[in-house]
Amino acid sequence: MNVVPDTSVVIDGRVSATIEDGQFEGATISVPEAVVAELEAQANDGIDSGWDGLSELQRLADLADEGAISLEYVGDRPNAIERGHASEGEIDALIRDLAEELGATFLTSDIVQAEVAQAKGLEVEHVSPEVREVGTLTVEEFFDDGTMSVHLRAGAVPKAKRGELGEMRYEEIADEPLDEETIDEYAREIVDGAKESHDGFIELSEPGMKIVQFRDYRISIGRPPFSDGIEITAVRPIAQTDIEDYENADELKERLLERQRGVLISGAPGAGKSTFAQAVARFISNNDYAVKTMEKPRDLQVGPEITQYTELAGEMEKTADALLMVRPDYTIYDEVRKTDDFEVFADMRLAGVGMIGVVHATRPIDALQRLVGRVELGMIPQVVDTVVYIEAGEVNTVYDVRTEVKVPAGLTEEDLARPVIQVTDFETGEPDYEIYTFNRQVVTVPLNDDEGGPGSESGVDRIAKQEIEREIRSVARGYVDVDLKSQDKAVTYVEEDDISSVIGKGGGRITDIENRLGIDIDVRTHDENPNYGAGSGGSGGSGGGAGGNTASSQPGEMVTPEITSRHIVIPVDGSHGETVEVQAGGDYLFTATVSRGGEIQVSRGSAIADDLEQAIDQKDPITVVPS
């Protein structure tokens, strides 16, 4: 009897298993060179299936030495063109042709291969991949009741994160480091267990990286060249909660069941976001809502009634298209991070699906900030109407998000009314932030002074000063300084030569600026500034005749601006929240406050942006000087 196995059954290890069961004992096993070539290519790429197949060939060689079978290698190695079309079935066709030529039984565990071979008149033996009950993995033995994650690495002592949510300790859990052979054995056991058990599957398989879901564990296995050594990280949820366990539970439950909503669950890594998302998923599922999840990797612990989806053909956008056909009431989108994720989240929400996204954020407002620029500003409340911030396993803050047409807080002129996103504390009903467009820029303004501390400028004050300076700078050539006296009054100090230009004929120019900004502006010279020469907010104490070069003697940090389609972005390391001056070739351009992201954005099309772009084109050195 002659048997020709294909690649699938060699990788599964079922050839030797079938021989040991007595079915093909004494047969001649003819292994195609095409199978060897495929296994060799996979092993060279660091893919475990290649190594599994090569191990099976060694077992067949051992069986041949024992006289249980005859073993031969037949056929030619596939050429480059055939290997390039392997995914289209070229290699499979070569193997089938060889079985037909030899008049052999074709052995496969691939149902498609089996059907094609039978259609071509071959004698086919189809064996299903073996599924067996897998016991406890070695890596599981490193866990106790308080362990969230285990970290194993060749040459290092095993470590684990243990404790309660918000109070995790990263500590050693063994006395000796693991050698490479031992951790490699652990890794192979994990992959084999995922393949052989109904409780596991391989979530991601790339050269150098595998992510396995096995029972309650998500296990990542890194190998060279992706990592510089073999590394295993196993994570397991240590708590399963109900929504009733959280503060404001009754109000949250009522809000979620009232209608489909857009919710962002935010918090720092390890704060308990996913645990809360699981509690929400179980709650809404138990209240007659159809719930699905979108995850990569799939690691939320939810009941069997909730189907967990991952990327379809490598794209969450395609997953969203499929989900819209399934018509869920709510979808849990775990790990919304990239722009594509936010766009998919928004598209599904606007299609009427209730969406609950899990995002990383260090402050409650940061979750909404991540939508700015990714979703049209006016659509944000339609996409997200609730933000839940988790800290140390507890609900720290809940925000209600809605739009009102009003005059932004801190401004007074009625003609400045505009759509304003109000971010309101769900518990107190008091607004904490307003988000709106101010002079072509999107600004997020805190409505309390807690963030700035006593004596600090409010967000509105900082923005108002920047915009006044921007407007005055567009017509003044020299140094400009702004002193905001109140929410609707300011004094602007300019060079003597710039007074007439700023005021304009009959006061027309300054009146236009006042009308645009809704602030009364008194224009004076630097000599009238009580702080002039004192080094605090004035021109640096160097006199008034420097022609705009008053700050050039101060030390500055050389920066390289980036020009995008809408902004000029100036990176400023380590100065977030500070007020700085931007200079070009030693000449003052403007003053700005560095964002939390460590940068300054200037909207293109403004006078300041035009000056800055001209300086960049002239290759003038751009420097940032502390104000």
UniProtKB/TrEMBL annotation:
InterPro entries: AAA+_ATPase (IPR003593), KH_sf_prok-type (IPR009019), Nucleic_acid_metab_PIN/TRAM (IPR052041), P-loop_NTPase (IPR027417), PIN-like_dom_sf (IPR029060), PIN_dom (IPR002716), T2SS/T4SS_dom (IPR001482). Transmembrane segments: none annotated. Keywords: RNA-binding. The keyword RNA-binding applies. Residues 524-557 are annotated as: Disordered. The keyword Disulfide bond does not apply. It comes from the Archaea. Residues 259-384 form the AAA+ ATPase domain. Residues 1-115 form the PIN domain. GO terms for molecular function: RNA binding. Residues 534-548 have a biased composition (Gly residues). NCBIfam families: PRK13764.1. In the N-terminal section; belongs to the PINc/VapC protein family. This is ATPase. The lineage of its organism: Archaea, Methanobacteriati, Methanobacteriota, Stenosarchaea group, Halobacteria.
